[in-house]
Amino acid sequence: MALSLSERNLLRRGIRPDRKKGAVSLGQRPSAFGVNRGSDRPLSAEQFAVKDILSEALRAQADLIASGRYDGLVGKSGEGFFDAFVEDPLFDTVYELAKQEVSEVKDFMHYGKLMRGAMGAAMGFLHLSALSRITPERSVPLSGEDAFKIAQALSPDAETIIDPFGNKGLKRRYVPDGYGINKIGKVAEVIEYSSGPKGLQGLQQEDSFWMMVDELGSLAYTPTFLHVSPLGVNVPGSVERMPFNVRQYYRFYDYVYSTYKASSGAPTLLELRTQWEQSSVGRQVALGEPSQAIFPQARS
Description:
The structure is a single chain. The termini are far apart. By secondary structure, the chain is an alpha/beta fold. Strand 1 (15-18) and strand 2 form a beta hairpin. The protein is 47% helix and 14% strand. 32% of the residues are buried.
């Protein structure tokens, strides 16, 4: 059930609405942007499923962090962070999808947006994981795949949708980019990765955040809506700055698209896209979509 305006205002003050009694109960430690979820209500069947997912995902991610999986990103910033990212297995995953979709997503501007979003989410997850390695009191970040499993458990009847870069969502349901889990296994952060101001989309995500908090019930503890971005964002919540700025990020995207080669002699994404553009199918599509003529230029 969606939260009313008055209920969202109570939550912002750290007060949890009690829908059964028509009253409110005070949290143990009110937060400026978040809510303590009391343990007075029994878990629903959906919440029990989420509890199991949280426990397993937290254990797996904590083990990876302790094993040194993310140590290559620790303390890196700017070009150093990008260099470490290119050496990370998550980069290979994104790049393989980028190669598959470079001639499948017909609107190039949309392709660029999807690719930047996929790279940004991967880098954001790695950045938070590296921070958890050197700052043990921080929440442990869960992946987008884990976030999808949690949302699916809360809405088991919702239809699954998948974008060209493999990101899973639920039709007409909010699925965040990730979650931050505290040391007692509770959701402490609902995470979104972005490159800057979000406008209407950000306001919609904020509203969905409150509904997500309500659905999680006692599985969440003073949760914060965390934006991970090279810039500040113009919506409520907390911001974790990425270790590079937006200009550096777009230069890196241009390098990956125009110059990077997975192996010696392999084509770049720009070359693959150009080959498709010059094919008979590509020319036919381009005739109906003038924007296909717009491409980033390879850097010298």
